[in-house]
Amino acid sequence: MKNKIIVTGGCGYIGSHTVVELINNNYDVVILDDLSNSSVETLGRIEKITGVKPVFIDIDLKNDTETKKVFSKHKDAKAVINFAAHKAVGESVQKPLMYYKNNLYSLINMLSSMVENNINGVIFSSSATVYGTPETLPITEKSKTQRPFSPYGNTKKIAEEVIDDLIKSNDNFSAISLRYFNPIGAHESGLIGELPSGVPNNLMPYITQTAVGLREKLMVYGNDYPTKDGTPIRDYIHVVDLAKAHVLAVERIINKQQEQPYEIFNLGTGNGFSVLDVINSFEEVTNSKLNYEITDRRPGDVPELYAATDLVKEKLGWEPKKSLNEMIKSSWDWEQKLRNNKE
Ligand code: UFG
């Protein structure tokens, strides 16, 4: 019999890629999503890629009665992967309460329903933002965490603490938090990828939308950082590599291979690229010029972030495979397909 996994936020960017990898690895998937920042069309696209349409439940996890009902119906699930969350850094500064309510209230409802139904393993979608401005590089899982700049980031930090406290109170419960660096790229089929609503906050979708003519020009936020070319350095990671790490984390939980009931892993490649590196690679991959301009720094941006990857390699056996050029090419293919489908 196949193992059942509940995936909250499974219609979203990282969620949908993870659902594909789970199905390809013979899991039964139940998606819970309120479609607040994703489309139901994604289900058909997942089916096109895998041949399987996952079970889908349209649910707002802030509703505790409904959440309890759904988890009780799927109490045979072996683990939950929690992607469901709002994620726009800037918006979270404007609407902090909306972020705390959505990201934390839904998490707490979900965890309560899990405990009630004896579903005892969760994989939590966390972020490198919990490291704040790192004192040393590369960032290991032992690096100090700091209060993140944005309410969004703070929901990730608080959520990790909520999970930690739950585990300390409950011997049966276990969790893995995966701290993502900068996920970009799209599935090779061109059928699923990032779908930012409105004006993108993140670099990669802003670049592809500029190149495709949706935006006039990319603003590069500052070139006076203490880095090789003055622009901030990030650790970009292909979303499909990232998705595969979730399957390994699920296996580790189900097979009870954890060394501690709460484990934390960084998900990055360990390579840092500057904003200008990304622009140059984009121009090389697409053989075109990108319209961009250097402007002021964006508040809250950290000069340099990249992951130490030893722990995740050793414990999860995960190694990212895709190069920056492959990440950029797949983002570009996805953007072009998206535009052509709309025209
Ligand atoms: N950038 C620009 N112009 C843009 C957008 C981004 O120059 O239009 C620059 C940023 O200043 C930064 C780099 O591109 O130097 C990357 O920016 P992103 O917004 O793509 O990513 P961040 O590193 O700021 O944020 C990401 C995730 C967050 C997470 C954070 C943790 O998107 O969810 O990493 O460090 F909180």
List the helices and strands and how they pair.
Elements: E1 4-8, H1 13-24, E2 28-33, H2 41-50, E3 55-58, H3 64-73, E4 79-82, H4 89-94, H5 96-116, E5 121-127, H6 151-169, E6 174-180, E7 182-184, H7 203-211, E8 218-221, E9 233-234, E10 236-238, H8 239-254, E11 262-267, E12 273-274, H9 275-286, E13 292-295, H10 310-316, H11 324-342
Parallel strand pairs: 1-2, 1-4, 2-3, 4-5, 5-6, 6-11, 7-10, 8-13
Antiparallel strand pairs: 9-12
Helix pairs in contact: 1-2, 1-8, 3-5, 5-6, 7-11, 9-11
The chain binds uridine-5'-diphosphate-4-deoxy-4-fluoro-alpha-D-galactose (UFG).
Walk me through this protein's architecture:
The chain has 343 residues and is an alpha/beta fold. It has two domains: 4-185 and 236-269, NAD(P)-binding Rossmann-like Domain (Rossmann fold, 3-Layer(aba) Sandwich), CATH 3.40.50; 203-233 and 270-314 and 320-337, UDP-galactose 4-epimerase, domain 1 (Alpha-Beta Complex), CATH 3.90.25.10. It contains eleven helices and 13 strands. It has helices at residues 13-24, 41-50, 64-73, 89-94, 96-116, 151-169, 203-211, 239-254, 275-286, 310-316, 324-342, and strands spanning 4-8, 28-33, 55-58, 79-82, 121-127, 174-180, 182-184, 218-221, 233-234, 236-238, 262-267, 273-274, 292-295. The relative contact order is 0.14. The mean pLDDT is 97. Residues 87, 89, 127-129, 153, 182, 201-203, 206, 218-221, 232, 234, 275, 298, 301, 305 line the site of uridine-5'-diphosphate-4-deoxy-4-fluoro-alpha-D-galactose.
